[in-house]
Amino acid sequence: MRYPIVFVFCLVVTLNAVAQRITINEKAISLPALFKEIRKQSGHDFLYNQSAIAQVGPIALQKKDATVQEVLDAALFNQPLQYLIEDKVVMITEKNTTGAKSGFAISGLVRNKQGETLPGAAVLVSNYQIGAVADNEGCFKLPLVRPGNYTLVIKMIGYQPNEQTVTISNRDIKLEIVLDEDVNVLREIVVKPDRYWLARMRVFQENFIGTSPNAAGCKILNPSVVSFEYDDEQRILKARADDFIVVENKALGYRIRYFLKYFERDDETQVVRFFGYPFFEELEESRAKRKKYHKKRETAYNGSPQHFFSALFSNTYADHGFVVNRMIKSKNPEKLSDSLINRKIEMFAKEVKSRKERRRRMDSLALYLKMKSAPDTVEILIREDIPTHELVKRKSAVLREIDFKDALYVTYKGERETKSYAKYSGYKIKRPDDLAPYQVSLVYRTAPEVDFFENGAIYDPGSLLYEGMWGYERVADMLPLDYQAEP
Question: What sections of 120-253 are H helices per DSSP?
């Protein structure tokens, strides 16, 4: 039975409670008593429904010098309650409370710099199957959007695309979007012919769409929108697109409109970096095709970053087949100091010139020359399990932060490596024999904070860098973030 929500306002103010660290050592404490103790030690007030709290009996809790969030995470673990902290006020609510909104609306007005509204402007949400078209008054609305971080791309012929990033937490969002005229449309553009375009297009397609089994079912429908620039000195291929790149993925059943922000391929290091905003549309399907798409989408989702971070959010990643270890960098034990190596090279070089025991001295010289070019550090896999509380921090009811140093070594045991992946050995990662058949990926941080949502979406996609299986899979294996496996 559900009861109406009645908040009990606890207005006790403790002027001396300035410390944010909490110490609790109780074998059986009720939640009201716990909240009172937290308020005493930290100055936080609590709002909650008495009937909801009554569902939870006394709990055992031992925490020393912990944050309010850490104490609440431990106290409410596996309980039917959740919390939200705003300005030292903690709101405790039931999970999936009756009457709670299933989503929030993003709405707004699209106009130009002259103040004229722009009917027909397309408003698309990156990485989702969500979009709208501005009506006759230039207004649009995207209803029932779940809490999260979203990038909107607003586009109309004759105007430059506009990007808006919004964060949905607990309220609707209203925007006013101004589009700038596209000066390229107003003047004649001279395009120089590129005799290498076909060859560069093949390279682009292989690195953009990928080489996985699903890539064979993909086709760029408008390749003419892509142009290239090659830096001969740095040996870097760059690509740009004048419009959305439209990819038809007959393997997964999507038409993807990809708004490319940048693409670079370093021919020297073979490293590829590209970034953009994909928008998904369902292809028309028969019952037979729908069954085929369902199976391949499920395979694409299983073991993906989206799958991993969604399971990490709910602390069920081990149940989903993921094993997470650390990969740390350590001093190379087989490499001597640079000063000693240089002295050895100088000594053996002189002895080679004097022809004294020439062959042996040449072998020694070659050994130290090779040692000089060896890396100063080596990567070492630490097979110990990482406690979840060390890896994940709760930032709010809808947001988590993953915290790690060096790299994460993520193994997915739910599927084995494909034959096509094994052929591209540049992506393969060394692993112990017992992990040989499984999918392995390395995860690096490129930003101080890495936040993620319940659906597996990363708050800032550029905050992580992938190697291995996750680095190998490209646009051909992308799924929208609102993908849900069919029962």
Answer: 183-186, 197-208
The pLDDT of residue 252 is: 96
Name the burial class of residue 178, with classes exposed (0-12), middle (13-18) and buried (19+) by CB atoms within 10 angstroms of its CB.
Answer: middle
Mean pLDDT within 236-240: 95
Q: Is 238 helix (H, G, I), strand (E, B) or coil?
A: strand
φ/ψ (deg, to 5) at 132: -155, 165
Q: Reduced to 3 states, what is the DSSP secondary structure of residue 236? A: strand
Q: For residue 433, with 0-12 CB atoms within 10 Å meaning exposed, 13-18 middle and 19 or more buried, which class applies?
A: exposed
- pLDDT, mean of residues 388-410: 89
- CA dist., res. 482 & res. 487, Å (int): 15
Alpha-carbon separation of residue 328 from 325, 460, 465 (angstroms): 10, 24, 16
Measured distance CA(395)–CA(50) in Å, rounded: 25
* pLDDT confidence bin for 420, thresholds 50/70/90: confident
Between strands 59-66 and 22-29, the pairing is antiparallel
| Mean confidence (pLDDT) of the chain | 83
Ramachandran sector of residue 469 (left: φ over 0; alpha: ψ -120 to 50; beta: rest): alpha
Can you say whether residue 210 is alpha, beta or left, with left for phi > 0 and alpha for psi between -120 and 50 degrees?
A: left
Give the 3-state DSSP-derived string for 19-79, with helices as H, strands as E and coil as C. Answer: CCCEEEEEEEECHHHHHHHHHHHHCCEEECEHHHHCCCCCEEEEEEEECHHHHHHHHCCCC
| Cα–Cα distance measured from residue 207 to residue 221, given in angstroms and rounded to the nearest whole number | 17
What's the pTM? 0.69
pLDDT classification of 289: cutoffs 50, 70, 90: confident
**Interval 119-152: pLDDT, tens:** 999 999 999 988 889 999 999 998 877 878 889 9
